Amino acid sequence: MGEQPAFIGAKVVEKYLDFATLIPLLERALIHFSSGSEGGVVQPIRTIVPVAKYNGFLGVMPAYSKWDDALTTKVVTFYENKTSSEIPSHQATVLLFEPSNGTLKAVIDGKVITDKRTAAVSAIATKLLKPLHTEILCILGSGAQAQSHYQVFIQQFSFKEVRVWSRTREKAEQFAKTVAGDVHVCSTPQEAVTGADVIITVTMATQPVLFGDWVKPGAHINAIGACRPDWRELDDVLMESCVLYVDSKEAAAKESGDIVISKASIFAEIGEVLKGTKPAMTDKTTVFKSVGMAVEDTVSAKLVYDSWLAENK
Ligand SMILES: NC(=O)C1=CN([C@@H]2O[C@H](COP(=O)(O)OP(=O)(O)OC[C@H]3O[C@@H](n4cnc5c(N)ncnc54)[C@H](O)[C@@H]3O)[C@@H](O)[C@H]2O)C=CC1
Ligand SMILES: O=C(O)C1=NCCCC1
C-alpha cells in the first residue's frame, strides 16, 4: 500500500489561498484554457446530475493542466431553497491526483476554493473591462460569493461607495455588518444599481434581478449566478445591448439561461482578452458571464497542496 492521501480542510485552504498569489495563477490558466490544444488544458463540460426531489444538483468538474502538471476533479453540490441556514447552498471537495500514475494525493475542501477562485476571476475580468473612472460598486446578493467578491474587490480596487441589495433587508444588513468597510444597504435592486460603475450579481435567482434599463451606459457587470439553462439573473435588454465576455464559450452557451434564453452572442473569452487576441471594450457596457471552470479549481488546489506540503514535509 502507498501513502494515504492528505486531507486538507477549509481553514488550511483559507490560509494558503491568498488573492495576490492566486490571481496571476488564474490569469495564466485562463490564457491556457483559451489557447486550444497549445494551452494544454483538458477540461470537458461538467456533468450535472439533478436531484429533483430536493431541488439540488451534483456537478463533477475534472481538468488537467499540462502547464501546471496538475490533475483534479471537483465534486460540487448546490441546492435551491436550502432547508437549513447552517448548511451552505454550495458544498464542494477537490480531489488532487498524481498525474504521472493516477494516485490520489489529496482530498481538499472545495468550498473555500470555489468562493475565492470565482471572485478572483471576476476581479481579473473587472480589471480588464471596467470603465476608466469607477466610483460605485454594487453587489446584488449577500451570500458566500457576495462575501468573497467583496473581499477581493476591496483589495484590488478603490471604490468611493459600495452598495448591497438582498432579497431580505435583514440579510443585506447582516452582510454590511460582517464586512470590514462601509457598505450602503439598498431597499431595491434598482436603487442599488442606479449610477453604479461595476455591478456584481451573485444570487440564486431563476428570473432576472438586473434590468438593462437600470444600468449606467459603460458600466461593467460580473454575472456569477444563473448557471442552469433555465435560470436567469440578467434581462434580455441588458444581454442584447452589452458586449458579452465569458470564461468558457462552450460552457456558457450551454449552461447559462442568461445566454441560452436571450440568445445573446458571445464576443470573447476572458482568456482571449488576457492574451491580447480580443479587445477589452471598456467604453461599452460589458458583461462578464461566469459559469465557473474546473481548471480554476485545478490551479487553486495545486497552490494549496504545494503550500501545505512545503510546511508538512
Ligand atoms: N460562476 C461561478 O464560478 C460560480 C457561480 N456560483 C453561483 O453564484 C450564486 C451565488 O452563490 P453563493 O453565494 O454561494 O450562494 P448563497 O446561497 O450563499 O447566496 C445566494 C444569494 O442569492 C440570494 N437569492 C436566492 N434566491 C434568490 C432570488 N430568487 N432572487 C434574488 N436573490 C436570491 C440569497 O438571498 C443569497 O443572498 C449562485 O447562483 C451560484 O450557483 C457559485 C459558485 C461558482
Ligand atoms: O464553478 C463552480 O464551481 C460552480 N458553478 C456554478 C454553480 C455550482 C458551482
From TrEMBL:
It is an enzyme of class 1 (oxidoreductase). GO terms for biological process: thyroid hormone metabolic process. It is found in: Cytoplasm. It catalyses: (R)-lanthionine ketimine + NADPH + 2 H(+) = (3R,5R)-1,4-thiomorpholine-3,5-dicarboxylate + NADP(+); (S)-cystathionine ketimine + NADH + 2 H(+) = (3R,5S)-2,3,5,6,7-pentahydro-1,4-thiazepine-3,5-dicarboxylate + NAD(+); L-proline + NAD(+) = 1-pyrroline-2-carboxylate + NADH + H(+); L-proline + NADP(+) = 1-pyrroline-2-carboxylate + NADPH + H(+). Signal peptide: none annotated. Pfam families: OCD_Mu_crystall. Its main location: cytoplasm. The keyword Kinase does not apply. Keywords: Cytoplasm, NAD, NADP, Oxidoreductase. Its EC number is 1.5.1.1, 1.5.1.25. InterPro entries: NAD(P)-bd_dom_sf, ODC_Mu_crystall, ODC_N. One of its GO terms (molecular function) is thyroid hormone binding. GO terms for cellular component: cytoplasm. Gene3D superfamilies: NAD(P)-binding Rossmann-like Domain, ornithine cyclodeaminase, domain 1. It comes from the Eukaryota. Homodimer. Binds the thyroid hormone triiodothyronine (T3); T3 binding inhibits enzymatic activity. Belongs to the ornithine cyclodeaminase/mu-crystallin family. PANTHER family: KETIMINE REDUCTASE MU-CRYSTALLIN (PTHR13812). This is Ketimine reductase mu-crystallin. It comes from Xenopus laevis. The gene is crym.S.
